[in-house]
Amino acid sequence: MTAPARDALVAVATLLAPDTPQVAARVAAAHDDPGAYLVEHADRLDDRGIDEPFPGLPWIALVDALADHGLLAEVDWKEAPEEIVSQLRALRSAPSADELWTALSESDLATHEFLEAAGHRLRETGTALVVLDIESDCYPLALLPAPHGEKLVTSAAAAGFTAEVFGHQESASA
Q1: Among residues 145, 116, 121, 120, which one has the least CA distance to residue 131?
Q2: CA distance 33 to 136
Q3: C-alpha to C-alpha distance for 60 and 1, rounded to whole angstroms
Q4: pTM
Q5: One digit per residue, pLDDT tens: the chain, 174 residues?
Q6: Burial annotation 154-172 (CB, 10 A radius, 16+ → b, else e)
């Protein structure tokens, strides 16, 4: 991974964890010395079936670091809306809009459609719902101020990874 890609990856970490510099440091460590990172976090990575360095290791490090700091919820591709709401609401970055969470938990939509609808509703509170694609059958979900959503997507792409903001106006009307 090149220096500009590393910088973009650290920018993603900083957008998602602005008050938790340990997240960006962990991502940088995974980028700078993947072998040492693998040894240091072997137990956690073993749970994901990762036992050797690979190009996506810094992205996995980001997901794990965010989760460790209460800034990411990893939900199954067919998770019930009330479980998704429970996990999102518990995030440190979640808005404290009780009526929003109550309304969302009453949904009966399938997971992806629910995430689009939830993203749209969260945008109304000034919050963006994002997924950090780890090419798995889960949704690593994070929340950040809505104005930073597109910067996150752009920075992720510059680092060679994929992030998506749920509930864009275009998506909501489709």
Answers
A1: 116
A2: 24
A3: 14
A4: 0.93
A5: 678 999 999 999 999 999 999 999 999 999 999 999 999 999 999 999 999 999 999 999 999 999 999 999 999 999 999 999 999 999 999 998 888 899 898 999 999 999 999 999 999 999 999 999 999 999 999 999 999 999 999 999 999 999 999 997 543 333
A6: ebbebbebebbbbbbeeee
